[in-house]
Design a protein that fits this description.
Layout lengths: L2 E2 L6 E3 L2 E3 L1 H13 L5 H12 L10 H13 L31 E4 H4 L2 E6 L2 H14 L11 E8 L4 E10 L5 H7 L3 H7 L3 E9 L3 E4 L1 H21 L5 E6 L7 H5 L3 E5 L18 E6 L4 H5 L9
Parallel strand pairs: 4-9, 8-10
Antiparallel strand pairs: 1-2, 2-3, 5-6, 6-7, 7-8, 10-12, 11-12
Helix pairs in contact: 1-2, 2-3
Amino acid sequence: MVQTSKKEGHVLLSGRWFSKKELDDIKYIVKTFPNLSRNELALTICEGLSWLAPNGKHKVESCQKMLEELEKQGEVVLPPKRSMRSPTIPKIKPGSRTNAKPKITGSVGDVAPVKLKTVRSRDGIKLWNEYVERYHALGYKRPFGAHQRYFIASKPRAELLGCLLFSASAWALAERDDWIGWSKQDRSQRLSLIVNNSRFLIFPWVQIKNLASKALSLAAKQVIVDWQERYGFKPVLLETFVDGAEYRGTCYQAANWLYIGDTVGRGRMDRYRKFPSSPKKIYVYPLQSDFKAVLQGKAGIINE
């Protein structure tokens, strides 16, 4: 049963009051990502709304009940139910396949052609997760919403050189949003057209000059293709966050990414200023020339 609050536009679902804006965001996510499972949709929404239980865990079951109620009302169309699996994510224990390899040195030309290998098989995802958990400073965190993993590979030698992950963009980012010049309504309608480079790892034994910027240049072309194939649309802007206290962002600069300012020290999915984090440098990479007009709703996406 839906209850309307005294504040106009708020409704009570699964023990939580939702504003009209929040409900519009939820409907948008469900409509934009039809290939996600119900559990993945619930996790994405919980993360975006900071919908947490007192123990700090996402209220996935409550969110799924809320989505089912919206479906009964005809507000959303959910994907078919899949076999029940525990939402608990087992701890990753890297195996021998991710042990350090002999040092690889030289320049990009020495390992050319470099390519990005999409990671979609169960075994490939497991291996990618192990590498990131073992060697990335932030470790592995399960991506929710639209995302794509890649291995950076040397084609002739069949060697893996690193990992990349592109995933959902930050909900609200003051410097980015001001730079784009879009309204909150624009953002709620077209946020999915921005994709975040949320993990970037060159393996510690790989010391190849200009490899990182080369991988980013390849990704700028590949992400468009993979998003179109998997999710039915093309992004128009890439973004990433660089910890200026630890890294200089040189590879992003070399790959022609633009520095547009710093975050204000909030988590990338924190819309309500509840979870402070250290400020990060914001870099972006436009994927088509009129990307600002597209994000503002003044132009269409180039499909050629």
